[in-house]
Amino acid sequence: MYVCICNGVTDHDIRSAAEAGCRTVTELTMRTGAGANCGSCLDMAASLLDAAHAVRELPFPVMQEAA
């Protein structure tokens, strides 16, 4: 879905930026252009960026080596 209509930024673009190491909305704006014009998409962009980091940072259980 389009998050930023002004600059044609999609939710996929935001997730890709997060996977590439984007940590803040300011950095997201620099990388993708989201929010650079009218700014009405910034709340949604921030939510998607936070959600992408939450999924990425889920802890995985550590498996013990077999004896």
From TrEMBL:
<keyword id="KW-0408">Iron</keyword>
<keyword id="KW-0001">2Fe-2S</keyword>
<protein>
    <recommendedName>
        <fullName>Bacterioferritin-associated ferredoxin</fullName>
    </recommendedName>
</protein>
<dbReference type="InterPro" id="IPR041854">
    <property type="entry name" value="BFD-like_2Fe2S-bd_dom_sf"/>
</dbReference>
<feature type="domain" description="BFD-like [2Fe-2S]-binding">
    <location>
        <begin position="2"/>
        <end position="50"/>
    </location>
</feature>
<comment type="similarity">
    <text>Belongs to the Bfd family.</text>
</comment>
<dbReference type="InterPro" id="IPR052371">
    <property type="entry name" value="BFD-associated_ferredoxin"/>
</dbReference>
<keyword id="KW-0411">Iron-sulfur</keyword>
<keyword id="KW-0249">Electron transport</keyword>
<dbReference type="Pfam" id="PF04324">
    <property type="entry name" value="Fer2_BFD"/>
</dbReference>
<keyword id="KW-0479">Metal-binding</keyword>
<dbReference type="InterPro" id="IPR007419">
    <property type="entry name" value="BFD-like_2Fe2S-bd_dom"/>
</dbReference>
<keyword id="KW-0813">Transport</keyword>
